[in-house]
Amino acid sequence: MHIFHNPVHGKHDGRQEMFRGRLVPCHETPARLEYVLDALRQRGIGTLQAPAAPDLDLIRRVHSPRYVDFLQGAWADWIALDPANAELDILPSVWPVRGFRHDISPSNFAARVGLFSFDSGSPLTAGTWEAAAAGAACAIDAARAVSSGHGPRAAMALTRPPGHHAGADFFGGYCFLNNAALAAQALREAGAERVAVLDIDYHHGNGTQSIFYERGDVLTVSVHGDPTTEYPFFLGYADEPGQGAGLGANLNLPLAAGTDFAGWTEALEQGLAAIGRFKPDALVIALGVDTYEGDPISKFKLRSADYLQVGARLARLGLPTVFTMEGGYAVAEVGTNVANVLEGYAG
Ligand code: OKS
Ligand code: ZN
Domain Histone deacetylase spans what residues (predicted)? Predict the structure, then answer.
């Protein structure tokens, strides 16, 4: 398996996120990826390669150009406000909720940050753009790698920051560019007529869903903690079937907090059945391992050995497959669990 890893992921290194009235240390840390890299190297899984330069045109076909411009320039704008800001991260604090205008372009920096985000848990730092763009390049290159050969092939975009919460024009949930959506779009443009995205992170992939909600060429399926109690709360319910040309091309499978591997597997099988009916030419797996029983911010009960079976089950689809790295915060076990998925997949 080709593994595109992001050599500059560590440049995205948030200091703090807002949680219950306090600033607390970020869960989404550079160490997460280093554990995965160590586990893969130790077990000799895959060949690691760095990505080429990011295809900014493709990124601008998935994300709105004005959002990409904002992300690219945000840090310079922040420093321009006050050079002392270099010691601080950018954290959103004001949002245009119901009744506000979305068709305006405020020049105030806090207003622009709010226009392009949805929570105060996702610090934007000096190196966020560089890391996110290189991560997007990993996803695009992984898609192109599985498109170029004959028969089923698989590649992984082993990157952070993660991507599945990022929408066409907003960041949040630690995500800035939607790597899974970029992989799906790259697969389409490389010739796959129909692409399925299966999101098995603990959290609903709201960004991916919203990007493809009105498209019939990309099926989005997500198995996740019930948003009634779990982040991102405002999307990810069972009654979101897609719209317009995309009607019938979105499937949400929310599960109660506390769900174990048996219950989770039942939902996975429903998702796989929908993917089978869709008859995709290629597959993207948004792979979060925050479904692990020891995850500090999530509430499913998967065990490390279960991930071997998950990988084996996904391989049985026999489709060209791109994995993107999403959540997982039991830092020391993230490496074991991701490596188990890939080992199970390789068989
Ligand atoms: C509230 C908690 C934010 C949870 C973000 C979830 C990130 C994730 N401050 N998404 O898949 O793992
Ligand atoms: Zn997650």
Answer: 28-343
